[in-house]
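Re: export button greyed out
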Amino acid sequence: MTDNELIWRIAGGSGDGIDSTSQNFAKALMWSGLNVFTHRHYPSRIRGGHTYVEVRADDEPVKSRGDGYNFLLALGDSFARNPQEEAYYGKEELKPLYENFDDLREGGVLLYDEGLLDDEDVEEIGLEEAAEENNWHVVPMDLRGIAKEHGREIMRNTAGIGATAAILDISTDEFEKLIKQNMSGDMQEANLNVLEDAYEAASELDIDHDIEVPEGSHDEEQVILSGSNAISYGAIDEGCRFISGYPMTPWTDVFTIMSQHLPEFGGISEQVEDEIAAAALALGASHAGVKAMSGSSGGGFALMSEPLGLAEMTETPIVLVEAMRAGPSTGMPTKPEQADLEHVLYTSQGDSARVVFAPANIRECYTQTRSAFRIAYEYQIPAIVIYDQKIQGELRNLPASHFDEEPNADPGSVLTEEEIQDAAHHSSGKFQRFLHEPEDGSNVSPRSVPGQKDGRFLATGNEHNPSGHISEDPENRIAQMNRRLNKLDDIRADLDENTSHQTYRGPEDADYGILVWGSQQGTVFEAVDRLNENGHSVKALGVSDMAPYPKEEVSEWLESVDEALVVEMNATAQFRGLTQKELGKYGDKMSSLLKYNGNPFEPAEIVDGFESSIDGEELAASNMKYVPAAGD
Amino acid sequence: MSAFSAINDDREIERDEFTPGIEPQATWCPGCGDFGVLKALKQAMPEVGKNPDEVALFTGIGCSGKLNSYFNSYGFHTIHGRSLPVARAAKLANPNLEVIAAGGDGDGYGIGGNHTIHTARENHDMTYIVFNNEIFGLTKGQTSPTSPKGHKSKTQPHGSAKSPIRPLSQQLNAGATYIARTAAVNPNQAKEIIAEAIEHDGFAHIDFLTQCPTWNKDAKHYVPYTDVQQSDEFDFDVSDRAEAAEMMRKTEERLYEGEVLTGRMYIEDERPSYGEEKRQIGEMPEEPLAERYFDEDAEWERTYDNLLEHHK
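Workaround output, generated via the alternate export path:
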């Protein structure tokens, strides 16, 4: 826990504007010179249900959600269906106030809208006792009243911002600027009045607390965006102009962003009947010469299994996104988990030949999506970007210059018409699109595109000979299988030489290691910093290349530590299993810290988990699972 | 200049161009109706003036899926039931391609039924040929979606309790703008219908009766056939939706009574194709997208200049 940081949580019902208010709050703090990071939690419903977003702000870079929060703005769920009686899921209207208020830090501020939440009800949940015990500053304010005085009830979130600013003693300048930027006319005026009134009303309350919002400044221009933005922008900058999809949470985010922007970039977006069609369309577009992508989340991705295999067999380049959510089956649609790794690596019949990258943050979402397109089109192979609801929903600031990159629309290993005339043709007249031994000595046999003169060939999911015709000849079979699979070795060598996707943290000579993949990297890195401050000797490795696996890099790192803890958000230690399978050893060196309750790790949980693992003690927290190394 | 010089290459087309230089031995049984589709398709190509390099043929799985092994064009033998979504994206990517999809009745009316409905609904400018032999042939004679009620097979030992699907009526409801039935036993009509379907600007659906002499019926079961356009018994307006619906119903029912009705069932020329609709709302570029990737002078905009402002 950093002493000098703000973790502001806004909680209400879905539809109360929690998400947009938190985005504005985060952006205003970024403008003020701070670094921000958001953590989003929401239910799978349109209206109502407890939704919250935490905005963590610090003058230092922030790369994870924090431990709990120190300021709660509880708006209450204005859409609660059953506000007065005891409901099946508990008192719905009050949930945004009392649900996990245990996580409010000692000395924290709890501001709630007494315009919506009845004081008698609030009394019943034991707030007073809890506040006394934890030294909380409870601030009831009639935010609804202030909102309604100038405008509509929904503006109580603006009132909440105004009151927050007063209590935390931060200027409302940036908030005013945002309101002016986003709204006009009566709406703008009403919101400005609400902001000002709430600020003044809260100032008069004179709340005496210890939270100090740090002051900071940025060396260069910052942008604030989500992992889904970064994946989409990476795709567009790498020349992707075709997307096909079917809505499914959390994949819908990328699909929406792409659909909104692709037409402006001269591209095409298709919402289709199901995910089988979605993947098949991307294949068809790619076959016809366009850089294309599709994607889904767990259940929808399952439907893409067969087209994915077809892409492997026909060596048609394609990029798929898999946005994980908690499974199995429908699972918990809006909650993050990292349990689709094996699904993505192995789904579809036969031996798989695919590339899988798991970016860990917004920066990596951009660069690794670009890598995925480059590799897919150069090596004629499907490339999958796997991420989860956590990165999808988190906003973070980073320098705008990170995106100041040249576009690359190169369609990869495709011949021009002139080149086709000189290329090998079969006596049937067909172009030899699947040569056993491509002329440049690589394993990639360049393709033609329909419409090119003399380029015709047959693409088929059957095993095929060089011109594409169906063949079950054993020698041909071996040659084609080997060439397709050997591309993975070439890709590994290419990545090792050109693009490192793995990230390191902590002292090189540390005794212990923490191994992590995907979205938990930032949290693990923060935990590693704290552990070293606490006197431990720990380093971390964040792995993004799930396939082809960076065997040498991970082996070398595992050799350098005595023991390693593998941190992941699933119940069966999938990444640890993959590492063991790929490296053929280290089962006695790796233990696992797992979490699968729908909430991502907090840094303190990893610190605790690590400390109990090396002390050989039971985990204190019941929301995680520890699995010892083999032989322990 | 186009990167695809085969497209709109204005020259005489010979039907032999669509026969591979070395013809693989066909995997179809002697007397199979699939030969009739292949022949009619090859014959239609000179009429529509398309050359092998501008035609992209997408097939599904089954005996029908072997079509593009014997048809010399760009070919994509996809997976069971999925030829249509692959094909229609190729058309969106490069609208200048002549896109044809083909598959069996299991492929298009069973496993891929959802795609058949939606592709028709969207009215993509392409041709879809369904080899309808009323049986699963390649898997050795199981009951298919078009097998008649009571059809006995190894998987339906007591006879099918299901009524067959109504492919023509279904396509009319789904939104296809050219719907016809033809038969392998009627090669001249088949050629004409395929040529019309290719020239039609929208989704053209051909239910092509292909006898399966090994598992189901041989050619003589589809003779005599009646061309509804040439019969005095059926005086209907092919552009009138209600009359077409009635004609289709008769056609579907009589097939199971032993009477083979063929011909154009519905033609709607007014409705814009999907590509036109999409261009109209600004969701598809005027120039074929595929061309841009081969144009050295093409400008590729980047997100840094166009989208980042919003995040500052």
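DSSP finds eleven helices and eight strands in chain B. The button fix ships in the next patch.
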